[in-house]
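SAMPLE LOG
Freezer: B-3
Tube label: C17
Construct: single chain, 496 aa
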Amino acid sequence: MRRLSFIFLIIAFSGMFRAGADAAPRKLTILQTTDIHGAVGDAKNPGLLQIADAAEQIRPDLWIDCGDLTQGSFSAAFDNGASMVEAMNAAGCDVWVPGNHDFDYGTELLAARLAAFRGTALAANMKSKATPMKTSAWKMFERQGVKIAVIGIVPPYLGLWIAPEHLTGLQLESPDSALERIMPEVMAAKPDVIVLAIHLGEYIAGRLNPDGKLRNMAALSSKFPQIDLILAGHSHQTEPGKRLYPGAWFVQAPPLGAGCARITVEVDPAAKGDKVLSVTSEIVEGKDRKESKRLLPVLDPVRKQAAEAGRKPVARLDFELGPMKNAMAPNRLAELICLAMMESTGADAAFSGTLSNYRVSPGTLNERELFLLAPYVDTVEVRSLLPAQIRTVLRELETKEKTADCMMYMGITAPDGIDGALVLGKTGKPIPETRRIRVAVNTYDAHGAGGRYPELKKIVESVDPPENVRKPDIRAALRDYLKKHYPVSSKESGSR
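STRUCTURE (predicted):
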């Protein structure tokens, strides 16, 4: 009898010990990546290979990627981002929130990438009717006995960046509206920690908002004080960690594969009130790290194939090409893009700026350099516009002529000023006010360029495109133009 009492006492004490251990505070590690933009990584520049090496050493409880994963590098473009998703699977990424550039290849390809992703894709503010997307609004993860609710928000401004046909069937709502709708459901599940993973930066430019006003992520934090941690992206700004009113911790990992963010969350699951005791974070740089052996079999083949394809010569140039800084100074690259769009579509005129900040020296231009000059998945739009509509666009461009947002125009001139008669370059004659002129512009600019050209967007979307006019890829149009007008020698091209 005494022996049984002693055994029961031991069991009771061990149960109390286990209960105390279960109630003890826990430290969780969350790893965040964002805006990797297809950066694989090599000996000179870090990328996903180096980030994965860091992740293998950190061994996070949760890895969250905040978007723009599949587009941005020559190797990612080589297979439309498929290898990047495969690599994230191999690395053990838990959550992917698509960014605006993940939509660049079109909704069908994005749907395929989401279906291939073995983690959870989150997009609380997006519904897709035409193309089913494998996404959820939020998900509860349990790590070390701690319940972590992760909510994903994609940028609601896709229509200001991407052609409508690439967004067919998508319905988007504001972050505020989505959070108002799902927060009661999240709270009913009684999470210990709430994480908002969003493909937007701390500040959201007024040009993106209908009222033209700047938005601050602190406003979202104060409206939804239940959120403990905000993981941001899109703006390519790095934030190691800071407190937003009234208490959310804000972090944004480095862009372009330069590193990741490590967040440590101390949680007391037994606490009656706020269960999050503290949040700290730091940036983990990818430079000087090794390449992940786990990811090499996935990424090295496409990296080698892309490197070989990238060396193929395109054109022989005896002039430099570089970014446009303002429309007051002529820019050779912007001129070439305009001419390429006109030649590929038969348009009478074209509007374009430069498409990146890349600069190439005189000499042989190869495929990789061409990609860096025109890295986005844009097509060429054509609209038949009246002179009055063209003047409206010219006035809008005039307000930006001293900024990097400017564009050049070719095929038409305004010798007596914008309010005077417009002259068609081919004829040198004034254009009658009732005559429509076929104008080419790239998709991104045509649909507002992220709110930079609202008048251009309004005009383009009010005019039907001409029938039987193909919409060539802008990089392909530029390649064809350069090959035709600046051919490489037979020796350079490797032909016999």
